[in-house]
Write a structure and sequence with these properties.
Number of strands: 14
Radius of gyration: 27 Å
CATH architecture of the largest domain: 3-Layer(aba) Sandwich
Shape: elongated
Number of helices: 13
Pfam families: ABC_tran
CATH topology of the largest domain: Rossmann fold
Structural class: alpha/beta
Order of helices and strands: EEEHEEHEHHHEHEHEEHEHEHEHEHH
Largest sheet: 6 strands, mixed
Number of domains: 2
Helix content: 25-40%
CATH class of the largest domain: Alpha Beta
InterPro entries: AAA+_ATPase, ABC_transporter-like_ATP-bd, P-loop_NTPase
Family: Belongs to the ABC transporter superfamily.
GO molecular function: ATP binding; ATP hydrolysis activity
Mean pLDDT: 79
Strand order of the largest sheet: 6-7-8-3-9-10
Domain ABC transporter: 2-231
Length: 361
């Protein structure tokens, strides 16, 4: 549906975007993330035809934005961060105006406007002056103008910015419904929105795409080790020793009562060989007095899944596992990891190496 190939926007005195490459298939809702100044808005404006790239190509459903700009734009609906509204117009007059701009045939305009008003919950507001509406309704009207001509691709820039919680829930639901029939590129600073709405995420930093993947798989691709949190019932020293001796385990970190303290004094993060089970096992697992539980974080020595090995070892020793959970980076942690000052310095170094280039478009 959308293909962005080798796209750059270069300026003389400020950072643009460099060698952006990604594509979107029909029916995808793709989250577009990045810190302020990373190049999100510049990229979205090039996709929608408001800016011309210095280098590279953008195609919408096989149509080149450079060679067939008008036809390509007809396939796009764009909602900028500030909706392009005329506050002195009524809702119906504004949508009629947009229908004329979008060259919707006169015989279809009334039907199409009615469908959009119903879909976006604007019934009863048709004759209301836009200026008098709440921000949530203005955002709905912005979405209405974006989908009025039934585009194949929707580009939404911060669609829930500045809304109250109730309005955010309503707009998210609308976007989810729109994703059933449209391809959606969604820019947002609200990271939980990505997990709620999107089946894929792009992260841009320093004008370059630094990550492209599915939200539920990003942690696996970013993780340097495999970590599991466990709560095990059994004698503390014996449980710690057994966990440390499991093949593939790199370290065992005990969590304190508050779930945050490490037991480094009692059990340093050491290789399994340094903590033989025979030296620490003080009592059998079926002792008369029921032992307390132990909460730990177990880290693999590499990135291999160690859950099965932990289960069989503890089952063999008859230490019941009360909870077991794979620990992974959250989207917030991934975002921060990819947009640190080091990443920005790398992007700046790349710019310096390429030298100053004046804007051509």
């Amino acid at each position: 549906m959308l293909e962005v190939k080798g796209v750059s926007k270069l300026y003389e005195n400020q950072r643009g975007v460099r060698n952006i490459d990604f594509s979107m298939n029909r029916g995808e809702i793709v989250g577009f993330l990045g810190p302020n100044g990373a190049g999100k808005t510049t990229t979205m404006r090039m996709i929608t035809g408001y800016l011309n790239p210095t280098h590279g190509s953008i195609t919408i459903d096989g149509l080149s934005m450079a060679e067939h700009s008008k036809k390509a734009r007809q396939k796009i609906g764009y909602l900028p961060e500030t909706p392009p509204l005329y506050p002195e117009m009524t809702v119906s007059a504004y949508l009629q105006f947009i229908a004329d701009l979008r060259d919707i045939p006169a015989r279809d305009q009334k039907r199409r406007i009615g469908e959009v008003i119903e879909r976006l919950g604007l019934q009863g507001r048709e004759r209301q002056i836009i200026r008098s509406l709440s921000k949530g309704y203005k955002q709905r009207i912005g979405l209405a103008q974006a989908i009025l001509h039934n585009p194949d691709l929707l580009v939404l820039d911060e669609p829930t910015s500045g809304l109250d919680p109730k309005q955010i829930i309503e707009i998210r639901q609308l976007i989810r419904e729109l994703g059933e029939n449209h391809t959606v590129l969604l820019s947002t600073h609200i990271l939980p929105e990505i997990n709620t709405l999107c089946n894929r995420v792009l992260i841009i930093n320093g004008g370059q795409i630094v990550l492209d993947g599915q939200p539920d798989q990003l942690a696996n691709s970013m993780g340097e080790t495999f970590e599991v949190s466990l709560e095990v019932r059994g004698p503390r020293e014996a449980v710690l020793a057994e966990l440390a001796s499991v093949p593939g385990v790199g370290s065992v970190r005990e969590l304190g009562a508050e779930g945050a303290q490490t037991a480094s004094a009692a059990l340093p993060e050491v290789e399994a060989a340094e903590l033989p089970a025979a030296d620490l096992a003080g009592q059998p697992a079926d002792a008369a007095a029921a032992p307390a539980s132990v909460k730990v974080i177990v880290t693999s020595s590499d990135r291999e899944d160690i859950r099965e090995a932990l289960f069989y070892r503890l089952a063999e020793k008859r230490y019941p596992i009360l909870t077991m959970k794979r620990e992974s980076l959250s989207l917030e942690e991934i975002f921060l990891k990819l947009t640190t000052s080091e990443s920005l310095e790398s992007a700046a170094a790349a710019e310096t190496n390429e030298g100053e280039v004046k804007e051509h478009a």
